[in-house]
Amino acid sequence: MDLVTVLVLTVSCLLLLSLWRQNSGRGKLPPGPTPLPFIGNILQIDVKDISKSLTNFSKVYGPVFTLYFGMKPTVVVHGYEAVKEVLDDRGEEFSGRGDFPIVERMNNGLGIVFSNGKKWKELRRFSLMTLRNFGMGKRSIEDRIQEEARCLVEELRKTDGSLCDPTFMLSSAPSNVICSVVFHNRFDYEDKNFLNLMEKLNENFKILNSPWMQVCNAIPIFLDYLPGSHRKVLKNFADIKSYILKRVKEHQETLDMDNPRDFIDCFLIKMEQEKNNPQSEFTTESLMATVADVFVAGSETTSTTLRYGLLLLLKHTEVIAKVQKEIDHVIGRNRSPCMQDRTRMPYTDATVHEIQRYVNLIPNNVPHAATCDVRFRNYVIPKGTDIVTSLTSVLHDDKEFPNPKIFDPGHFLDEKGNFKKSDYFMPFSTGKRMCVGEALARMELFLFLTTIVQNFDLKSSVDTKDIETTPVASTFGRVPPSYQLYFIPR
């Protein structure tokens, strides 16, 4: 190695070290494992199961500690008390959205999930109000879900009791509900455009939960200069946005300012009202990003929970037998389940809650960020620092939920068999950044699951003891293993 090469390497290392010290010296951050230059703690984290690594770190460093994903510090909050303090008690100070490089390249900081500041507050307020006006959490949206549940049952009947993969059908049902709110129409389960959208959504969710994507999010330069599955994610999302743009243009041509039909119409009317405001957050680009957020979040998360839930019921035959007994007693087999039934069905309600608790769909939440310099538990967390709140540490708390790794609806029942609420139940997060569609998702999960179990016996192609329920990925989200089953009409 010649002298010039040695000098270049030496200077480069010194620059990296200097930058590292400058970056890691901001504030009085909580303790954590010693990071390596450039890559941080990535080699000390199991990128296939990040929440497991966070639990192990918490045993050494306590409920609040610092990790480096690449060169940027991230404060991790672990355990119910610390998570509640950050998300609820001090929600405003931690209401920023943390870095998620692959998503930032998809949405450019727009929309409601990954935006910040004034943009986020205005778009979230508008979206909540509009979704409520279109029935979210009300009887009108319940009617839509019931109708879609009947369509789903008909699709399942078409399998004629033969072995099938339920992925597409369970993706289509919740997606159709959100489509009726956003696009003012549902799709036939055989519609080619719909099939294409569902395929891209499912593929993206799997790729985003791959170990490679966790490395790319820690070291974002990889996204720009290396080949890999991240390029497929960007291509799929571009296709989804292209479809949304097409629908937006159709809406613009038929818009009636006095009679909005759906979410897109309401956004277009808001754009018209603010057309003379140069600081308006309501632009075409913002519309596309917001609709994409509502559509993707309203489709993928609920459908994955449904798919995982059926797998758990398939394995735990004693649970589904109790649920069916309660359904037969309260509802019977000749009318559709409704939300009023839930208060008279404690075991079914507990089962739906336990599915969400056990599945733990977004184990480490969507990253938050400090909106100002924050003094937190004797530490100083600088403005802009990413905050990871471990929902696993809450949903799988062994004091609140004995044997948390065991699927047991009893976690939500008292000694008399009545439904028991838990403050630890926060699968949708909590506080100012909690899921906008929580009310819709909870309604869908109850109505879809009870309608399926009301109409079908679930039969596995393998012995129940051989059914694997461990997720195939547990990074940003948890992906259930693929499976097939028989839907046998009751």
UniProtKB/TrEMBL annotation:
SUPFAM superfamilies: Cytochrome P450. Residues 1-25 form the signal peptide. It comes from the Eukaryota. Its EC number is 1.14.14.1. Keywords: Endoplasmic reticulum, Heme, Iron, Membrane, Metal-binding, Microsome, Monooxygenase, Oxidoreductase, Signal. It is a peripheral membrane protein. PANTHER family: CYTOCHROME P450 2C18, CYTOCHROME P450 508A4-RELATED. The keyword Cell wall biogenesis/degradation does not apply. Belongs to the cytochrome P450 family. Its cofactor is heme. It is found in: Endoplasmic reticulum membrane; Microsome membrane. Pfam families: p450. Cytochromes P450 are a group of heme-thiolate monooxygenases. In liver microsomes, this enzyme is involved in an NADPH-dependent electron transport pathway. It oxidizes a variety of structurally unrelated compounds, including steroids, fatty acids, and xenobiotics. This is Cytochrome P450. It catalyses: an organic molecule + reduced [NADPH--hemoprotein reductase] + O2 = an alcohol + oxidized [NADPH--hemoprotein reductase] + H2O + H(+). The keyword Iron applies.
